[in-house]
Design brief:
The complex is a heterodimer. By secondary structure, chain A is α/β, with parallel strands linked by helices. Chain A has nine helices and seven strands, in the order βαβαβαβαβααβαααβ. Classes of the chains: A alpha/beta, B mainly alpha.
């Protein structure tokens, strides 16, 4: 089950905790991976760790030209992009009344517009191959909202709506488009929280703990797999029961 | 029939799985040959690859029939 041998996958934000875990998991299932991100060092380190079938393609997702070039670079390295995981995302948290246009547009540009551009860039190959998987990493806050994250929540909700529309357009060509919506996941970002804050968060989650990056990766592997061919336009919530939607 | 017309017909027949006799000059991809809007996008992609040309979106919109496609490609393909 979930054998990805012979498939090529492009993963954005692979220098981060969740993106790195997704890239590792796809690779472990046999896929060749292109690791993209802004920070070259962690990408190179991950590629070295994975060994064969791993390539590095740094990209700044707020640079439109660089984003247009990434699918081509990935296809050159892989032969064909069969799986696209749009995982990269940024936050610019701010109370709504204090949110600047710049806070808003930067988050939309990276979290939403780059997802559109990269998806558009890989679709031609997927249409020809009559097979493709696009997995977009959304967030629970895109569904529930979160104070201080109007921009981030808007971008993550928008990705869900975009995915559903695209899923309907390309379903007949063997291409699926789905989202994974993580809840609270332990990463470098949450390491900065105090024990008190962490305990409070865990108390609000039915599972009683934060999730792990590997638990997100498992969901991504499923949606990328041949076995998930009949699942499209869906959002798989991985949040320990924090929100049941 | 020109070489281009022949190659265009082959692509249309293969992609839309229609009988060659139905692919006439005035045959509309959507109305006569059963294409959906995504098929027309794929046809344009296939023409671009076969003839090594770029068909801009506004031109692609004017290519509604087999005859339109042949005419456009004859005017724009170098070989």
């Amino acid at each position: 089950m979930f054998d990805l041998t012979g498939k090529g996958a492009l993963v954005t934000g692979a220098s981060g905790g969740i993106g790195g875990a997704i890239a590792r998991a796809l690779h472990a299932q046999g896929a060749a991976v292109v690791l993209s991100g802004t920070r070259v060092e962690p990408l190179e380190a991950l590629a070295a760790e994975l060994g064969e079938r791993a390539h590095v393609a740094p990209c700044n997702l707020s640079d439109a030209e660089a984003v247009e070039a990434l699918p081509k670079a990935a296809a050159a390295a892989l032969g064909q992009v069969d799986i696209l995981v749009n995982n990269a995302g940024i936050t610019r948290d701010q109370l709504f009344m204090r949110m600047s246009d710049d806070d808003w547009s930067k988050v939309i540009e990276v979290n939403l517009t780059s997802v559109m551009r990269l998806s558009r860039g890989v679709l031609r190959g997927m249409m020809k191959a009559r097979w493709g998987r696009i997995v977009n990493v959304s967030s629970i806050v895109g569904v529930t909202g979160n104070p201080g994250q109007a921009n981030y929540a808007a971008s993550k909700a928008a990705v869900i709506g975009m995915s559903k529309s695209l899923a309907a357009e390309v379903a007949s060509r063997g291409i699926t488009v789905n989202c994974v919506a993580p809840g609270f996941i332990a990463t470098a970002m949450t390491d900065a929280l105090t024990d008190d804050q962490k305990a409070k968060i865990s108390g609000s989650i039915p599972a009683g703990r934060m999730g792990t990056a590997d638990e997100i990766a498992a969901a991504a592997v499923y949606l990328a797999s041949p076995e998930a061919a009949y699942v499209t336009g869906q959002t798989l919530h991985v949040n320990g029961g924090m929100a049941m939607v | 029939m020109s070489d281009i017309a022949e190659r265009v017909k082959k692509i249309v027949v293969e992609h839309l799985s229609v009988d060659e006799s139905k692919v006439t000059e005035s045959a509309s991809f959507i109305d006569d040959l059963g294409a959906d809007s995504l098929d027309t996008v794929e046809l344009v992609m296939a023409f671009e690859e076969e003839f090594g040309i770029e068909i801009p979106d506004d031109a692609a919109e004017t290519i509604q029939t087999y005859g339109d496609a042949v005419k456009f490609i004859e005017a724009n393909a170098s070989a």
